[in-house]
Design goal:
alpha+beta, 6 strands, about 35% helix, elongated
Length: about 260
């Protein structure tokens, strides 16, 4: 197999693994969101003291009080019976941001409120079908009011004539945003990595079956015992050098003239 398919297959496997891990992180974060939404500062308590953090220094939206019960108006006075039967008193609270609407008027104290938006932006326990919060009905809890609207950092203490459950709304909001971000990152990273891994694996498999292996060059070394041999029984005489004949001609002298020298 050539190098390119091997690299693609390895990368595809790595991306698949990262994608699976990303999915796991997303699922875990989504589960954490549900757990955070069911987190209470106090459960089944009639008094308590908690710390308001006010991380941005601009005031917190405060806390919400929940009680066991249902939204009914058996006496017909136009107020939910659960509100009539529950009295919450804030015994101490931090200062409030006067720039917030009604923060100075409320002064961090408890006020009855069920569904502010659906109830024409009014804080009360008016008995009407719109003025309900059913987010925690599976736990048997209904919202009756809030406290510490616009509070700066400090200690908040309360007392109640009935057992209450208290949620810190700012903390719930921060946990919700953090959980949603982690969930989104986990799922998007998981989907992206998983898809990339599948694509790389497909390409790698295709290349593995279509690309020919590199030609291998084979070098053959002669064996050491192989030597040039002559045919037995045949003797070849060495070539004799040819004689080169050189001829000399007898010199011819002209006759010496009569009379001599």
């Amino acid at each position: 197999m050539r190098t390119a398919p091997k690299v693609l297959l390895i990368l595809g496997g790595v991306f698949l693994l990262v994608g699976i891990i990303g999915f796991g992180i997303g699922i875990n974060s989504a589960t954490g969101i549900e757990e955070d939404m069911n987190k209470y500062e106090f459960e089944n308590a009639m008094n308590g003291t908690m710390t308001i953090d006010d991380n941005d220094g601009q005031g917190d939206i405060g806390v919400t009080f929940w009680v066991k019960g249902e939204y009914t108006d058996d006496d017909g006075n136009g107020i939910w019976d659960i509100c009539d039967n529950t009295n919450v008193v804030i015994t101490s609270n931090p200062d409030v941001n006067s720039n917030w609407d009604e923060a100075t008027l409320l002064d961090g104290k408890f006020y009855y409120e069920v569904n502010y938006e659906a109830n024409n932006n009014e804080s009360n326990c008016a008995a009407n079908n719109l003025n309900k919060v059913n987010d925690r009905t599976e736990q048997g809890l209904v919202k009756i009011g809030r406290a510490c609207w616009g509070c700066f950092a400090g200690e908040l203490s309360f007392e109640s004539n009935q057992s209450v459950w208290v949620t810190y709304d700012d903390q719930l909001g921060e946990d919700l945003i953090e959980g949603l971000v982690e969930t989104a990152i986990g799922f998007f990273a998981g989907v992206g990595s998983f898809c990339c891994g599948v694509i790389l694996l497909i390409i790698g498999i295709i290349l593995a079956f279509t690309m020919k292996d590199e030609d291998q060059i084979v070098y053959t070394m002669p064996q050491s015992n192989q030597m040039s041999m002559q045919q037995p029984g045949v003797w070849t005489a060495p070539a004799q050098p040819q004689k080169v004949q050189t001829g000399m001609s007898q010199p011819v002298f002209d006759e010496i003239g009569k009379g001599g020298l």
